[in-house]
Specification:
The relative contact order is 0.15. Helices cover 31% and strands 21% of the residues. The protein has one domain: P-loop containing nucleotide triphosphate hydrolases (Rossmann fold, 3-Layer(aba) Sandwich). It has 299 residues and is of the alpha/beta class. The strands form 2 sheets. A 6-stranded mixed β-sheet has the order 6-7-8-3-9-10, with helices on both faces. Helix 8 packs across helix 9.
Length: 299
């Protein structure tokens, strides 16, 4: 059952978090934080030359998602695992209301991603694996303030929340530098901070530790596990090519192949069912792919 949207006006406990007179981010979710029901997404074929003029009118024929159904329970962490092109990022982008599904339904916190996109956006934090969407000539702090105001966060809340997270993410002086001067790893940490800024109850992460060095990646996993998942009870759906990361964070693993869901279970159960000693071996058994295909090409 979709939860009610909380109005912040007159609510003393929310006054410091949200600007008065604005609708707050929903702080409650249903038993299933994410529901995906027979979801399909197709794209038109890419044409070149004069045929490119036909592309806006071409019928979608390249299937990125083919009837996927799964649920993420409140407080659960589910990992999306598959080779490049399996449909992981497309699925996350549909849930983030950046793509409209061709068929089927997707609900986040009880709200339909296609029919109620504004309500959906109030309930999740999203980190994209690429195209992180910052304004290059603004500082990190100015960017975070801008996105915080889009989520109706109050100035008083942002004044304490941004420095606290920046210290935890070891951003230091980078917070007051223009984004165009920052390294890719620092921008990655800034994007993760932005996804967590408004304390969402549903978190969508696409390759969260990509571009991070080994120490920063390990520290972020510890923070995500202890603070976000266990202490705050946030629901997490994330895509990753890093198998140890999946085994650390995920309660269940959804394995995708060619836009289809081929398995969904805990890492230990997947290994047991496949007679495998590792998640890498289980992945190979279930998909027919060598697990080395999971590795991202060097940039």
């Amino acid at each position: 059952m979709p939860p009610g949207v909380i109005c912040v006006c007159g609510r003393e406990e929310q006054a410091s978090l949200f600007s008065c007179g604005r609708q707050a981010i929903n702080t409650g979710v249903s038993d299933s934080a994410i529901i995906i029901d027979r979801l399909e997404k197709s794209f038109p074929r890419a044409y070149s030359g004069w045929r490119a003029l036909l592309q806006p009118f071409a019928a979608p024929s390249l299937a990125a998602l083919q009837g996927i159904s799964l649920q993420v329970r409140a407080g659960e962490a589910v990992a999306l695992l598959g080779v490049n092109g399996a449909g992981k990022s497309t699925l996350l982008r549909v849930l983030a209301t950046l793509l409209i599904p061709t068929r089927g339904r997707a609900l986040v916190a009880g709200f339909d991603c296609a029919r109620e996109p504004a309500a959906v956006r109030r309930n999740f934090g999203y980190h994209a694996g690429s195209d992180l969407g910052f304004y290059a000539r603004l500082t990190g702090r100015e960017n975070l303030g801008f996105f915080g105001h889009l989520n109706h966060l109050s100035d008083s809340f942002l004044k304490t929340r941004i420095p606290a997270l920046a210290e935890r993410f070891e951003l230091g002086d980078a917070l007051d530098r223009q984004v165009r001067t920052l390294s890719s790893g620092t921008i990655q940490r800034l994007s993760l901070l932005r996804a967590l800024l408004h304390q969402p109850k549903v978190l969508l992460l696409d390759e969260p530790t990509r571009s991070l060095d080994a120490l920063a990646a390990a520290d972020f996993r510890r923070f995500l596990k202890a603070e976000v998942l266990q202490r705050q009870g946030t629901s997490l759906l994330f895509a990753s090519h890093t198998l140890p990361e999946i085994e650390i964070l995920a309660d269940r693993v959804a394995i995708l192949k060619d836009g289809n869901l081929v398995a969904l279970d805990s890492p230990e159960s997947l290994k047991a069912k496949c007679g495998a000693q590792s998640l890498e071996q289980a992945f190979s058994v279930l998909t027919g792919h060598d697990a080395r295909a999971l590795e991202e090409p060097a940039s």
